[in-house]
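Q: What would this chain look like folded?
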Amino acid sequence: MKPRDLIELISLAALWGASFLFMRVGAGQFGAVALAALRVGGAAAVLIPLVVYRRELPSLRQHWKPILMLGITNSAIPFLAFAYAMLTISGGLSSIFNAASPLFAAALAWLWLNDRLNLSRTVGLLIGFIGVIGLVVSKSGIGSGAGGGSTLLAVLACIIAAAAYGFSANFTKRHLAGVPTMAVAAGSQLSATLVLTVPGIIFWPEVTPGPVAWAGVAALAVFCTGLAYVIFFRLIANVGPANAITVTFLIPAFAVGWGAMFLGEQVTLEMLIGCAVILFGTALAVGVLKPALLAR
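A: My prediction, written as structure tokens:
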């Protein structure tokens, strides 16, 4: 990578890591549904003008059906699931489960797209899912979290979100290959907005959220979603998807750091161990860490 690409990669990891901080700040006052609706609505407001400027609206209209599906699976479901999880567990823990998304993508590619797995990738999948299961088991014995909700349900919501991201990666590869990336990003956020607007109105909080919560939602929508997508697709164009996906390994560090710095979230030994196991397995499964490189 060039220095500029590396700076953008780290900036993207910082933004996506901060998204867990802002979800944690906003979820308690907005609720999961309204928070997710505002997030995708704000991101769509940022991205649609860029699509118009780049003259990619015809591509969006032509492929609106798969883009609608992608908006549901890659934005509406995971954003809603993570917002629900933020009511109970820390952003740092949620980001560790989010790091398992490439594991689900690799497993679904093998099952759905007949993507062949060599020995090292298979071992990586096993190691990564062992880390996920171990972290789930370690949290399943806790009855309730900070918000009074079930910790196990919050953890399962994170797993659903990671699986949705994994499905979306394969769905994009199969149905949206060659479609302009900004049209896909903007269209998916617009689609998610259409899906979540009515539920967001129905579940709008009875008590008006405070200015800090509103500021958090604005940052989540504009910077952690809208701007982050622009940077992500720039990285894909400049360094390729294999290098761009390495941002996955940096997100937990930023999410844990932001949570500890601004919200006083605790970092436990089991979280660190689980994160290390998941990231090691993911690195093997997606081919970032190869046996020859590991031997060296």
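The longest helix spans residues 211-239.
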